[in-house]
Amino acid sequence: MSFSYFWSIDQKATLSAIPKEIALLLFPIAFMFNKRFSLDQIEKIKKIYGYSMIALTVIFLVRAIVRYLILKDTRVFFYHGENDLDYGLVPKLLNAIHVSVFVAMGFFYFISKEIKSNSDYFASALLFGFILLLSSKNIILVVIVLSLLYFFYFSKSSHKLRLRNLIVFGILIVVVFSFGRIKNRFLSEFQANTSKSLSTNVIEGVPDGVHYVSIKEAWSNEIFTPNDYFPGTAFRVYQFRIFTELFSENNVFFTGFGLNASYPKIEEKASQYNLYQGNGGNNGYQNKNFHNQYIQNFAELGIFGVLVLALMLIANLKNALKTKDFVHFAFAILMISLFLTETFLWRQRGVVFFTLFYCLLNANFSQRKIIIE
Questions:
Q1: Bridge partners, residue 229, by sequence
Q2: Residue 208 domain-assigned?
Q3: Distance separating alpha carbons of residues 80 and 64, to the nearest angstrom
Q4: pLDDT at res. 185
Q5: ∠344-347-353 over CA atoms, to 5°?
Q6: In Å, how far from its chain's centre is CA 346?
Q7: Structure confidence by residue, pLDDT tens digits, 32-76
Q8: Residue 100 falls within a domain, yes or no?
Q9: Strand, coil or helix: what is 251?
Q10: Is 243 in the same domain as 361?
Q11: What is the pLDDT of residues 209-233, one digit of tens each?
Q12: DSSP helix/strand/coil, 73
């Protein structure tokens, strides 16, 4: 990221972005020189984190109840608003998807406890309910799948019936994806002009009477109009499309455009395709990044930038499977799936969260592996 300053097409933007990414350097150095945590200390840290998420959940639920009594609008219980003063369960500045990720890690701690008390079951239900209210389809789906994996494979009771559980889990997956309605839902998402999306819309407050762009149109239309609005999935397809075009038009395969320096190119494409660029207080599409961490790394840091990220995620998942630590495994899968729809590491809270959990769960890997074996 720092080296990309020397070839960045927007050196000012790159230089200003480096400080918020500094956690990627400082936290690993701190873990290198710090005395290694014992297994008990790691479990205590997970416990403190889990109860911290309970506190966060309660605060925002109380906030929502108070706002409902004042505003009489149920929107205060869901997602985030268009701005920090608008309706929404959490402020837009925090981002409902990011909060979902933070809360999900607390949820995984509670469901993975071998001996659960009534308060643990209540905590799990509370955190899961809060994730549902935050309304991030991607996170909800991943949390449900990981929960099923835990009960069918990781839990202590599943060990006695592992083969049966694997068969049942496999049948459930086949049955779910065999339903014609689900198949039609994906086909509809690909071809139909609908406001519904598999991922979150990038612009809130869409007015009535607009044309919703389908995935097919997002990939193939030669021109759009300011009346065309992109559901979340269609917009991500459009972003992947312009990413491929930018790489074919610019010789940046090995270098990328530079950290945080792809925005001018994204704006050029928005003008070329005549995308809605906002008016008054409404945001347009020209200032939105790629909404995909892998593509963002590739576009701004080149092939080596995306390979480093991929190797980190592969090593993380490999270590999680060897230690059989469900929280570690859940973190690995959650990050891999999250990076498909969010540029999580391009936000300071995202890079701090990712780096701290990555170091905590991997820095003591060899010690944890020996003890488990």
A1: 212
A2: yes
A3: 11
A4: 44
A5: 70
A6: 12
A7: 998 888 889 999 999 999 999 999 999 999 999 999 999 888 888
A8: yes
A9: coil
A10: yes
A11: 678 888 889 999 999 988 888 887 8
A12: coil
Q: What region, left, alpha or beta, does residue 251 occupy, with left being phi > 0 and alpha being psi -120 to 50 degrees?
A: beta
Structure tokens at 244: 């491929």
Pairing verdict, β 211-212 and 228-229: parallel
Distance separating alpha carbons of residues 216 and 219, to the nearest angstrom? 5
Are residues 25 and 61 located together in one domain of the fold? no
- Residue 69 token pair: 């009594």
The tokens describing 136, both together, are: 């991030």
| In a shared domain, residues 19 and 70 | no
Distance from C-alpha of 85 to C-alpha of 71, rounded to nearest angstrom: 12
Can you tell me the distance from the alpha carbon of 34 to that of 2, in angstroms, rounded to the nearest whole number?
25
Instruction: From 116, 131, 160, give the residue that closes a domain.
Output: 160
Q: What is the reported pLDDT for 114?
A: 85
pLDDT number for residue 364: 72
- Provide, rounded to the nearest whole percent, the portion of the chain with pLDDT above 70: 81
Q: Is residue 170 part of a domain?
A: no
Intra-chain end-to-end CA distance of the chain, in Å: 38
| Co-location of 151 and 235 in the same domain | no
Residue 173 lies in a domain: no
DSSP-derived letter for residue 228 is E
Q: What domain count does the chain have?
A: 2
* Pair (214, 359) in one structural domain: yes
CA distances from 331 to 104, 105, 124, 294, 321 (A): 9, 7, 17, 17, 12
Rounded CA gap, 194 and 214, in Å?
7
DSSP 328-368: HHHHHHHHHHHTTT--GGGSHHHHHHHHHHHHHHHTTHHHH
Does one domain contain both 4 and 42? no
Q: How far apart are CA 31 and CA 42, in angstroms?
A: 13
User: Which residue range is the domain that position 269 belongs to?
Assistant: 1-35+179-373
Of the CA atoms within 13 Å of residue 138, those in its CB half-sphere come to 24
- In the block, residue with structure tokens 């994204």: 266
Q: How confident is the prediction for the chain on average, in pLDDT? A: 85
Residues 141 and 214 in one domain: no
What distance in Å separates the CA atoms of residue 320 and residue 141, rounded to the nearest whole number? 20
Distance CA 247, CA 97 (A): 29
pLDDT > 90? residue 262: yes
Does 93 share its domain with 229? no
